[in-house]
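Notes from hallway chat w/ T.B., transcribed later so I don't forget. T.B. wanted the structure written out for a chain they're using in a teaching module, and asked if we could keep both sequence and C-alpha cells in one place. Agreed to drop them here.
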Amino acid sequence: MRGRTGHEPGADRSARSDWWGVVLDAADGPALARFYAALLGWETGGEDAGWATLVPPDGVAYLGFQTAEDYAPPVWPAREGARRMTLHLDFEVTDLSAAVAHARELGAREAEHQPQEHVRVLVDPAGHPFCLYTDADNDTAS
C-alpha cells in the first residue's frame, strides 16, 4: 500500500509504523474494550472517555473501540428491516466449551442460531456477534 513504511524482520513493534486494526462502535467503547481485554488477555494500548485500543502480545494489529452516539447493535442472524451485521470477529480456541464458558462469565451470551458444530456464535455486551471456533480436524475438546 502506498504511504506505508516497511520494516526490518525482528524490529521492535513499538518502533514500527505499519500497525492495522479493526474498530468497533459501542454505546461505551472503553467498557467494551475491557470485556475483550478480559476475554483475550490483551493489554490496553490506550484509553480515554470515548476510545480504547487493545494490543495482542505480539504483532502490529489492534482492536479499537469507540463510543458512538445513538449506537444500535446489529441483529444476527439478519432480519429484514433490522440493522445488519457488517463484520464480526473470529477467535480460534482449543477447548470450545471452556472458551464459551469464559466468554459467558464475562458477560457474553450465546446466540440462538448456531450454524456449525465447531463454531459457537456469541454476542458481546454491546451486541456484536463474534465466533469462537476450533479446527474441526484437530478438535478433541468438544
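Follow-up for T.B.: The chain has a mean pLDDT of 89. Might be a good example for the class.
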